[in-house]
Amino acid sequence: MLIDTHAHLDFHKFDKDRDQVIKRALSVGVTKMICPGCDFESSMKCVGLAHKYDCIEAMIGVHPSDADKWSSEVASKFFVQAKDPKVVGIGEIGLDYHHMRVSEEVQEKAFREQLELAKQVGLPVCVHARESARDVYDILVESGVERVTLHCFNEDLEFAEMAWKRGWILGFGGTVTYPQNEELRKVVAKTPENLFVLETDCPFLPPQSHRGERNEPAYLVEVADEVRRIRR
Ligand SMILES: [Zn+2]
After folding, report:
1. In the chain, what are the domains?
2. Maximum distance among all alpha carbons in the chain?
């Protein structure tokens, strides 16, 4: 049994064959998929999918690259939505200094306020950090939020150790299969058994044998095999 802890099944790229994609995942043993929101509409789509499919659970959140869509209105809607039993987390939230579609200040405000929301509703958070790990770390510590997953972990061993000390969970996906990612495989090898989860981040970041294609939850098997091989 495998769980894809980060699958953007709400994306339009799955509109034509979503049923088949989910069936393929189930048929190879990926029995649960968690669908993270990127903005209000996307979050509501994830919740809708979670109600349509037993095997799907939803997270609600505004992605750092969409942080300009965060508002007090969205906050109060999320506050209500968070009580839905199929909503299992606040995400994905965080800071992205790579794309910088939205200014750092706006990203930081949305991130901090969503961490507050997570505390209020008692849900864990799923965090996106790109070229922003130190700031993400400081803000998370300051927030006092304890249940954290650093999705698509891509930092070095030193940062991983800081995360482990906090009891944060690292999300490993297709990037662990990429030939150039030796540093990440060191992290995978050393991460304590209870401090990592697997994810695809589909439709992005397909594992090596599917590079250039749309990623999907069934390909989590390749990620799992590679993680098992590295940790043997
Ligand atoms: Zn994602």
Report:
1. 2-231 (3.20.20.140)
2. 49
